[in-house]
Design a protein that fits this description.
Number of domains: 2
Radius of gyration: 21 Å
Structural class: alpha+beta
Distance between the termini: 58 Å
Strand content: 5-15%
Number of helices: 11
Strand order of the largest sheet: 1-2-3-5-4
CATH superfamily of the largest domain: Aminoglycoside phosphotransferase (APH), C-terminal lobe
Length: 362
């Protein structure tokens, strides 16, 4: 076999885990921007495929906490669905390292893990039909429901205050005051818009909603869809699973799935919440998430507004700080991303009465 020009010695790394059969091949896999990911094939006549990943230390400075959470969550989910049809495809399953650990640390200190690859599924980046939105939302709702009785102790916060919107606001205030990149004048309208909507920041925190185990990155492509049926088979990318509010996850679904425009779309006329997709998300989520309290139900129409506004604040903060967190391909891209989120926020807010009527019908 020809030598593979990977950044890492994938063959050697795969050999540090309890894989079935000899190493045959590997290839870079997926479109993620955080972790290095490879699909590895082993075996002879009967072949098995796996996902080999390196955790990105810049994003997850405490990989031990990430792996401890994943190990607990995946084990709990496996117990909950044991005996159900196709159970092996419905939960991410870690493959132990040779020393029985759920990860391997290489000589450079990198943390690696291996999952069984889930066959006959696909990940979709942009909603093509409301049925896909329904399937993904149902999968995320079921994910939350199955974790509702996760035993103590509390999951670790792998990214502290990830959805603490008041702290995101405080970071924006500091960025405006410092104006480190001398860009405040270029973002004057966006800063004013943020200021006008600042009271939204505390709407979920002040509602005293119950803390739950949440996913915190509920994009469509974090649910694998069955090739044949389109059903949501498995929730993936568990690195951000930690304590949070159920509505953070629902709000991020609304933010990430209802708008067909790209994240840095400059033609803001194309940015709009598609109500049929919102309806599909709501119906799918509530088909599984039957544990929500009345207060959580009442705030479902607000959740998408909050998370969309919060991400707009983050993009604006990074633009003012000189693009130090989010990767950019051109100057001004983070400001365009901010504008897109703020326009989507306005669209969601404008449709809140119809959203509230729909929620009330359940």
């Amino acid at each position: 076999m020809a030598k593979m020009n990977f950044t890492h010695d994938v063959r050697a790394l795969a050999g540090r885990f309890q894989l079935a059969g000899e190493f045959l091949q590997a290839e870079p896999f997926g479109r993620g921007h955080i972790n290095d990911t490879y699909r590895v094939t082993t075996g002879h006549g009967l072949r098995t495929r796996y996902i080999l990943q390196r955790l990105n230390p810049a994003v997850f400075p405490n990989p031990a906490a990430v792996m401890a959470n994943i190990q607990r969550v995946s084990a709990h989910l496996s117990r909950k669905i044991a005996g159900e049809p196709d159970a092996a495809r419905r939960v991410l399953r870690l493959v132990p390292a040779l020393d029985e650990s759920p990860y391997h640390r290489d000589a450079a200190g990198n943390w690696w893990r291996v999952y069984y690859y889930i066959e006959r599924t696909r990940a979709v980046d942009v909603v093509e039909t409301p049925a896909q939105a329904f399937a993904a939302a149902q999968a995320f709702g079921q994910f939350q429901k199955l974790l509702a009785d996760l035993p103590a102790p509390r999951l670790q916060a792998t990214i502290p205050d990830f959805h603490h919107t008041p702290k995101r606001w405080a970071a924006l205030e500091r960025a405006v005051t410092a104006d480190a990149a001398n860009r405040a004048l270029k973002a004057r309208a966006e800063i004013q818009f943020a200021l006008q909507n600042q009271p939204l920041c505390r709407v979920l925190l002040d509602a005293h909603l119950p803390e739950r185990a949440t996913h915190n990155d509920t994009k469509l492509n974090n649910v694998l869809l069955d090739d044949a049926t389109g059903e949501g088979v498995c929730v993936i990318d568990l690195d951000t699973v930690m304590p949070g509010l159920a509505l953070y996850d629902f709000g991020d679904m609304v933010r990430s799935m209802t708008n067909p425009a790209p994240e840095a779309e400059r033609d803001l006329a194309k940015v709009e919440m598609q109500f049929p997709v919102f309806e599909a998300l709501l119906r799918g989520y509530l088909a599984a998430a039957d544990f929500l309290t009345p207060a959580e139900m009442n705030l479902l129409p607000v959740a998408g507004q909050l998370i969309t506004f919060e991400l707009g604040l983050r993009f604006l903060t990074d633009f003012l700080s000189g693009d130090i967190y989010f990767k950019v391909q051109r100057e001004g891209e983070n400001l365009d991303r901010c504008r897109t989120q703020f326009k989507l926020f306005e669209s969601i807010r404008r449709q809140e009465p119809a959203m509230s009527r729909l929620v009330a019908s359940f």
